Amino acid sequence: MKRIFEVQPWDIVTHKFDPKDKRLQESMTSLGNGYMGMRGFFEEDYSADTLQGLYLGGVWFPDKTRVGWWKNGYPKYFGKVINAVNFIKMNFLIDGEKLDLAKDDFSDFQIDLNMKDSLLTRSFIVNKSGNKIKFIFERFLSVDQKELSVQKVTFENLSNQSVEIKAISAIDANVKNEDANYDERFWDVLDITDNSIVAKTKPNNFGTPQFTSAMQMSHITSLTEVDQNKTESEVSKTFYSKLTSGEQASIEKRVIVTTSRDYDSISELTASMHKLTNEVSKKSYDELFSAHRDIWAQRWNKSDIQIKGDTEAQQGMRFNLFGLFSTYYGDDARLNFGPKGFTGEKYGGATYWDTEAFCIPVYLGITDPKVTRNLLMYRYKQLDGAYVNAKEQGLDGALFPMVTFNGIECHNEWEITFEEIHRNGDIAFAIYNYTRYTGDKSYVLNEGSKVLTEISRFWADRVHFSQRNNQYMIHGVTGPDEYENNVDNNWYTNYLARWTLEYTLKVLDEVSPEQAIKLNISEDEKKHWQDIVNRMYLPYDEKLGIFEQHDGFLDKDLKPVSELPSDQLPLNQNWSWDKILRSPYIKQGDVIQGIWDFMDDFTEEEKKRNFDFYEPLTVHESSLSAAIYSVLAADLHYEDKAVALYERTARLDLDNYNNDTDDGLHITSMTGGWISIVHGFAGMRVHDDGTLSYKPFLPKKWDSYSFRQVFRGRVIEITVDKSGSHFKLVSGEPLSIKVNDELVELN
């Protein structure tokens, strides 16, 4: 655990600069607008350790998979979000000497991410050759004009004599990814003008699309342009001013970024770039920022969770929502959540099962249903790739990928690619979750029924029948707990497979005759699916009364995490992989994940026995872990445990709990704060009959919390304070809900 930023309700701010924490600072001051994003690296060159990262939504490259021993069915490439052409680059000379905070003497440092307005500000006073210059940097990515990046740098001469300032503003295509296999560059420059670059991703051997990006910069400044320069990969402009003592000057840089995802030809792409550059030139900085800020205000008005009495909890919650909204707000149905969003290179892919299992439950409650429907359509549109993935494994139906941009699996770890197949069940569960929450059956009875059918065909082929036990089993899998690889009969996987088949059969009874013909499911198939449902093996220990995580799990040396020396944690940074696999320690919720998914299907005693057994063995070294345990702890009235786990999930990155935030934020786990409060502390449930219910409690050190929830055309405001819980219908038709099992009418 490490905290480098101050605790404030709306800001991520520090007045300290420590070079060894530079990457951590960059991750936590990242910006994004759904279309593009960037780490909080400095605009100017920094000669010490840094991770420069700019990313464009949906722009990626298929890097050749490197393995020592190729296996049949292995993904041919590892898809990765690549570093975009650096369009925010700005260097500065003070009396001819380059500004470099890795070398310079400076004071009064501050960096501040204002989450309310999505504005990053950095300031300091640099001392060079006896002169003092104050720099103030401002940066935002517009959510009003998605293609627009805005930077503003203000200088003030604090010296007793005049100082010469040069600002060199550039667009630089000479960029790379740290995780590139062969240190290669991914961009070929097609065209350079005095203020723009057009670049295209280099050719690949896998038949995936190449992407073109175009970037045009313009400047508003009191400085004088004195030079411009072009190389094979960079265009730059130099601006000059001589500041007298006490004088201020500023330079504003605006960049329009367009990509081939939105245009059919390079000529259309560049024409749009020029048009948008011209349009924004007619507006002042204040006008551009005001339009951006107003949209963020609307988002916060709908979704902000207000916590009184605990500023740490408040900051963590808002940081979670800010990270989610910066990554995805449903504006582009072709996009999805990446686990690192726009904050780093790790995990490379566009989407994991995190979307269905963690993001959809949150977005159902804070956005219009069409946003979640778009996430479901994302999978439907990638069915062709899922067929390929199943075929690669020699199986029927569709296997949705663990990591993908286009539906084709592009993850390069065998125990994940081949074995973490519970993801198929998570996608089926998301369809059910959407339908139950919204009451909208239009998806499940059409596109959704196709997805469910093909997933069910996969499960029916992936199971095998044990003659000895007279039951169906699934061997050779990895469950959500990735500290257990290649196990037999993972309870969560088997449970989801059985449930998916059962749910699909129910849906098939409701589809139209026309849709049934399209699905072309025989009666023999249905009978086989029902037989699997009836005879699926689910590991269970009678003595302990728990669902066994997988066959053989209880044969391990079952010692709680509390008995481990603190210097051994996190395990993944201190133990060999072999030692981890032989241990009983759980990375994240596995059995507990399944119980959370289907809370109404388990008794109080079942939930208690399983939580009490598995939680002491869980190290929570997955960012997705703490929230699920927090919800179950709240359900069991383990309120102190629920709050402690909320604090871990809400401040996972802010306090660097797992010592791995320096390479990027854990975006999809930022759903955890909302899940912990709404599903956990407020006890929100939507039951199969469509009833919305709550069982709220107030953490002891909080004075109150409140949130708004979107539900079936209504907006409901929930406040929980020391006098009890209060519910208000903000908009929409009257609604009956249950609070602590009592009926409450909202009018």
From TrEMBL:
<dbReference type="InterPro" id="IPR005196">
    <property type="entry name" value="Glyco_hydro_65_N"/>
</dbReference>
<dbReference type="Pfam" id="PF03633">
    <property type="entry name" value="Glyco_hydro_65C"/>
</dbReference>
<dbReference type="Pfam" id="PF03636">
    <property type="entry name" value="Glyco_hydro_65N"/>
</dbReference>
<dbReference type="Pfam" id="PF03632">
    <property type="entry name" value="Glyco_hydro_65m"/>
</dbReference>
<feature type="domain" description="Glycoside hydrolase family 65 N-terminal">
    <location>
        <begin position="14"/>
        <end position="261"/>
    </location>
</feature>
<dbReference type="InterPro" id="IPR005194">
    <property type="entry name" value="Glyco_hydro_65_C"/>
</dbReference>
<dbReference type="GO" id="GO:0016787">
    <property type="term" value="F:hydrolase activity"/>
</dbReference>
<dbReference type="InterPro" id="IPR017045">
    <property type="entry name" value="Malt_Pase/Glycosyl_Hdrlase"/>
</dbReference>
<dbReference type="InterPro" id="IPR011013">
    <property type="entry name" value="Gal_mutarotase_sf_dom"/>
</dbReference>
<dbReference type="InterPro" id="IPR012341">
    <property type="entry name" value="6hp_glycosidase-like_sf"/>
</dbReference>
<dbReference type="InterPro" id="IPR008928">
    <property type="entry name" value="6-hairpin_glycosidase_sf"/>
</dbReference>
<comment type="similarity">
    <text>Belongs to the glycosyl hydrolase 65 family.</text>
</comment>
<dbReference type="InterPro" id="IPR037018">
    <property type="entry name" value="GH65_N"/>
</dbReference>
<protein>
    <submittedName>
        <fullName>Glycoside hydrolase family 65 protein</fullName>
    </submittedName>
</protein>
<keyword id="KW-0378">Hydrolase</keyword>
<feature type="domain" description="Glycoside hydrolase family 65 central catalytic">
    <location>
        <begin position="318"/>
        <end position="674"/>
    </location>
</feature>
<feature type="domain" description="Glycoside hydrolase family 65 C-terminal">
    <location>
        <begin position="684"/>
        <end position="746"/>
    </location>
</feature>
<dbReference type="InterPro" id="IPR005195">
    <property type="entry name" value="Glyco_hydro_65_M"/>
</dbReference>
